[in-house]
Amino acid sequence: MSITLLMILIFIAGITLIAFEDKIGVNKSAIAIAMSVVMWVVIALWGLPVGTEVVAAELGDVSETLFFVMGALVIVELIDVHGGFRVISDRITTLNKRKLLWIFAILTFLLSAILDNIATAVIMIALLRKFVPEQRDRWLYAGMIIIAANAGGSFSPVGDVTTILLWNGKNVTPMHQISHVLPAAIVCMLVPLTIVTYAFFKKGEKLPPLETTAIEPDSIAAHVNNSSRIIILVLGVSTMALVPVFSEWSTLPPFMRILLGLSVLWIYTDRMYGKLTMLPEDKRMSVSNVISRIDMSTIMFFLGVLMSVGAMKVAGALGEVGHLLENSIGEPLAISFTIGIMSSFVDNVALVAATQGMYPIAEAGTYMTNSAFWTFLAYCAVTGGSLLIIGSATGVTVMGMEKLTFGYYLKRFSLLAIAGYVAGAAVFLLLS
Fold it and tell me: For the chain, which residues make up each domain, given as ranges?
């Protein structure tokens, strides 16, 4: 057995176990970490020239993405615990089901491009619960939130972990991705959104009156004045929105901008709590306390997957798989489209990271920076995850929060997501 085949088998076994983590009762992060270590051990035992320097080099590349994701999660959590997102929720007043669907879909689409689709999905589901009391009704909105979040995440360099990977890897530049993928992303959302509007909701159908949305008296937000909530929201959102500008201007990696913004928020909130002398220390939510609330198992999952892909690259397995795809499919854009479909049942982070390893950036031609191949991949890898609810971290997150079942999404939304995916791809190809 060749090392290429062995590495691929280990990777497929690991991804399969991750997909069925609920059935086997083992967290996907544990599986991903174990998979990565086993793959590196196999490389060492095989006798390939690998040591501390090689592993450290791969870890350095991976760390850029991990620090970016961690910083973004802390900023979103900081905004949320201080009631910053009430600035948005307090301005939504309609009870019309169709209008509310469009408001949530468009908000999700736009916020995903700024905050990332996972964080946006969490925020929008939390907001949705304030407006739609019945869970079965919420499932219709939740399914559309998944599609809109992935569509919005596809055209932004910070909208999804996979687009961050492509940006960090210098496969695409921010302004090129935004200008070339945005039309396809809009169509990808509008096609299923239009169908859901007229197929699932009756004209003039309204929700029951909203319950009070007053801030809980014991919450942190109750001790923070409205101006401070707005400042925290503006600082947090602008930090992530200006990441592409900062990186283009300074040539520094994106995570540096996130850390700079986080440090500004840290200083501001520490100064704010210094003025709230009546608030006990254990009730405060400064950055140092918010960090402890971040789901580190998700970070460990990304670490395991990305280091596994790095092991496959070092072993030469990705290069051989790339040649196989190229020989069997041939057309580069068809490869991107196929990878998008595959991302509906295989983790898209792993797929994109593997693709980057299979096709190194060239000075010119098919695989150069900002080529149609990489730009189309940014669209396909993210939006393809909407075809099945388990196809994206966004879908899995919503699935867990709303107890949305695989079968319900498959029956109600998978065909709609396919229609949007194909329509958006067609728009991209027509305009490219």
Answer: 3-431
Rounded Cα–Cα distance for residues 359 and 352 (Å)? 11
Backbone angles phi, psi at 158, to 5 degrees: -115, 15
Distance CA 388, CA 385 (A): 6
Tokens representing 154 are 């596809």
Q: What is the pLDDT of residues 182-207, one digit of tens each?
A: 999 999 999 999 999 998 888 878 87
Task: Answer whether 0.85 is exceeded by the pTM.
Answer: no
Beta bridge partner(s), residue 96: 206
Q: Is residue 400 a contact partner of residue 295, using CB atoms and an 8 Å limit?
A: no
Gap between the Cα atoms of 375 and 431, Å rounded: 12
Cβ proximity of 181 and 375 under 8 Å: yes
Q: What is the CA radius of gyration of the chain?
A: 22
- Helices and strands (H, E) in the chain, number of each type: 22, 0
At residue 75 the predicted structure's pLDDT band, cuts being 50, 70 and 90, is confident
Q: What angle do CA 138, 121, 108 make, to 5 degrees?
A: 90
Eight-class DSSP state of 96: B
In degrees, rounded to 5, the angle at the alpha carbon of residue 303 between the alpha carbons of residues 300 and 306 is: 150
| Cα–Cα distance measured from residue 303 to residue 249, given in angstroms and rounded to the nearest whole number | 28
Q: For 174-189, b where at least 16 C-beta lie within 10 A, e where not — what string?
A: bebbbebbbebbbbbb
Contacts of 84 (CB under 8 A, 6+ apart): 229, 230, 232, 233, 236
Q: By the 8 A CB rule, do 40 and 50 touch?
A: yes
